[in-house]
Amino acid sequence: MDSSALFSLRLSLQVAVSATCLVVPIGIFFAYILAEKNFRGKNLLDIALTLPLVLPPTVTGYYLVILFGRNGPIGGPIYNLTGWTIMFTWQAAVLASFVVALPLMMKTARASFESVEHQLIDVSYTLGHSEVATLFKVILPLARKGLIAGASLAFARAIGEFGATLMLAGNISGKTDTAPLAIYTNARSGDWSAANGMVLLLTLVSGAILYTAIKFKGRVSL
Amino acid sequence: MSVSLRLVKEVPGFTLDVRWKIGDELVTLFGFSGSGKTMTLQMLAGLMRPDEGYIHVNGRQFFDSASGLDVKPKERRTGYVVQNSALFPHMTVKENIAYGLTGGDASARAARVSEMTGIFRLDGLEKALPREISGGQKQRVALARALIGRPELLMLDEPFSALDRPIRARMQDIINEIRSEFSIPVVLVTHDFSEVEKLADKVIVYWAGEVVQEGSPAEIQKNPADGRVSELLGIG
Fold this sequence. Notes:
The complex is a heterodimer. By secondary structure, chain A is mainly α. Chain A has 11 helices and no strands. Chain B is of the alpha/beta class. Chain B has helices at 37-45, 73-76, 93-98, 106-119, 135-147, 165-181, 193-199, 217-222, 227-233; strands at residues 3-11, 14-22, 26-30, 52-57, 60-64, 69-70, 79-81, 154-157, 186-190, 202-207, 210-215. The A-B interface holds A 117, 119-120, 122-130, 137-138, 141-142 and B 42, 45-47, 72-80, 82, 84, 86, 88-90, 99-100, 102, 145-146, 149.
C-alpha cells in the first residue's frame, strides 16, 4: 500500500474516531430526551435528527454547506470572528460523518432506553436519587449493550461516509481524501491496485463492526 | 407520625377521588384490581401528579394543588416496594441495599448495609445478583433497600402476591417484626383479606376510585358498609 493510501486510511480512522466521540454523548442525550420527555416539537426534533439516515448524503452535505459555509448562518459568524472556515478541512469530514452517523446512535440508544423497565427508574427516584444520578447508575448500565451496538454502527457509518464529506470537505489529495474518497479517485483513474487494499480493509473493518453490533444487540434493526 | 391526603385524578375511563388519614399504623388499601390503590401509592411517592388535592406526611407537605407545591420523589423519601421487587439486575444484593442510602461516609454506609442484611436475614447473599436468589429473598432485599434510608412512610404494593403460601406467611411475619424496628406508617395494597387480617390495624376499602368503608379488619368483616364491601369480602 503506498503512502497516499496509508494517509487516507489514517485520516478515515481519525475522522471516524472523532465523529464517534461526538456522536456517543450527543446521541445519548437526544435519545434520552426523546425516550423520557414529552414536549412540543418532539416529533419534529426526531424527524430532523433522523433525516440524514434517509436523505441522499449529497443532500445532507448540501444543507451542511449552506449552514457552515462562509456565508452560512453558523459558518458566517465563525468566519467573521476567527477568519477560519470549516469548509475543505478534515474537521468538515468529521462534521459530515457526525451528522450522518448520529441517527444510528440515537435510534439504537433510544430503543435501549425504552426497553429499561420504567419501574426501576421510578424506584431509583423514590430511593432519593436524582434524574441525572438515575441515568448514570441505572439507565446507562442497563442499556449498555444497545449503546455499544449504536456506537459500533455509528463508527461504521462514519468510516464509510462519502457523499456529505465530498460536498463539505472536498476531495483534496493529502488533506481531505478519506479512504472512500481515495477509492473513488483511484477507480476513476483506473488505478485498481491502489484501491484494492483500501476496499479490502474497509470491508473487513465494517464486517467486524457489524459483528460487534449484532453480538451486543442480538440483531441489528434500523 | 401520620399521613393525610385528598387525591383527585382523572384518566381516560377512570376517576380517582379519595380522602383519608392514618396514624403510625399499618393500613391496607383493600379492593379489586383497577380500583385506584396503586395509583394512590404512586401519587404518595410523587411518581404521578394528582389533578387536585393535598398530601401531608408527618407534618410535611408533599403536594398541594392550591399552592402548586409538588415535592419531587427523591425529596419525599418514601419506601416503595412493588410486587416484582424491582431490584436493579446489574447490582448485587449488597449494592441494591446500599442504593437506598444517599450521602454519608463509606464506613457508616457499610455498617448500615451490614445491619440491614442482618435484620432481613440476607447474610451470605451479599454478592449474589438478583437473578441468583429466590422470590422471597428478592422481596427481603427490596424491603431492606426501601428501609435503609429511614423513610417516613413505607408503601407495599402487593409485595407478596407472587410468592408461594409458606413464604408469604414468613414474609408477613417479617413485616410484623420490622414494624417494631421502624415505627413508621405502612400502607399495604392487597386484594387478599387473609393478609389484611394478619397484618392490618386498619383497612381502607376502595371501590372504583372511591373509599367505601374504613375500619379495623374485624369491624369491616362484621359490618360491611354495603353490598360492594360484602362482595369484596366474598360474602355477598
